[in-house]
Specification:
Nucleoside Triphosphate Pyrophosphohydrolase; four-stranded mixed sheet; 3 helices; 184 residues; homodimer; alpha+beta; 2 domains
């Protein structure tokens, strides 16, 4: 593993309710100096959950995506609340967004959205042994849901209204996990 | 498809060299009003390339990730220059970061990093029929490379120094694409 660059200076250069931008003055191990910007993280992390039914279908939710001003299909996901574990947060998000709880939840991996300039990470969970249960969430409107066969990701990923990199990553990871460790 | 919320007001609330934060006052179709923040995009988009050798191995590069202050293995990727097509940008990034060019490049999909609050998208490309060619890039240091069998993604994705969601998504997409449309 290479030696990390030396951080010569680090300063916050912008802050809004959701985003904190930091500027880093770096000296790489070969002596080259560069100034980088990154989005610093706050909060307690986030989860994305792949809820799999007894029929091998994943439950997707349709949510307004402010980044691209369009509705998109993706996984139930959200921030971890203070004091909450990641599995607990995942089960809560399932109930709030998809109207189901899970008796089994497993952590697969923590991935970074784009580590080159964002600190944020999201824990990918797979959930099964589902039951109906709803909790009120903080969404501005109820979310539509749809069931999709996990063994037909190609057709899902080809859709224009499925473009969320985190959801797509998590779906592939869950499919591969379940193929090598079947639920039954 | 649901009706998009009405954008009542849109204003830039922070701007740095790399990031522009916008605040959106929205009215959803059910009348609920909310204020969202999002990172607006500038530039001409970006590409992530999965370069596959004749041996069925992907070439990965090891790059410093300022977002998490750590070196990570991932795909060659970068911004599209003005006037450049996405395949052209992909081939240039390959030469700059991995020391290879590709006689075949195919566009798979444009994915959003996290559309709920970021406008940015990245075009996922798969490349094969590779040949040795280097171009000087804008990296502060030469990048180490490694070859990894595309049919063993599970072991790669399990590594702590592989966490970039975009790279992981692109690897799965390329693997599935090549399984259904073999190169030979």
């Amino acid at each position: 593993m290479p030696t990390n660059p030396l951080i010569l200076k680090r300063q916050r250069i912008a802050r809004t309710r959701l985003f904190q931008v930091e500027q880093l003055d770096l000296r790489f191990s070969n002596g080259v100096e560069r100034t980088y910007e990154r989005l610093a993280s706050s909060g307690y992390g986030a989860v994305a959950v792949v809820p799999v039914t007894a029929q091998g279908e994943v439950i997707l939710v349709q949510e307004y995506s402010a980044g691209i001003n369009a509705y998109q299909w993706g996984l139930p996901k959200g921030s971890i609340d203070p004091g909450e574990g990641n599995l607990e947060a995942g089960n809560r998000e399932l109930k709030e967004e998809a109207g189901v709880g899970a008796r089994e939840l497993r952590f697969l991996k923590s991935i970074h959205l784009t580590p080159s300039y964002m600190e944020r990470s999201i824990d990918v969970l797979v959930a099964w042994d589902l039951y109906e249960e709803s909790l009120p969430g903080d969404e501005p409107e109820p979310l539509a849901t749809m069931h999709w066969p996990l063994d037909n990701l190609a057709e899902l990923v080809a859709r224009a209204d499925v473009s969320d990199g985190i959801s797509i990553t998590a779906l592939y990871m869950a499919r591969d996990y379940l193929q090598s460790s079947p639920i039954q």
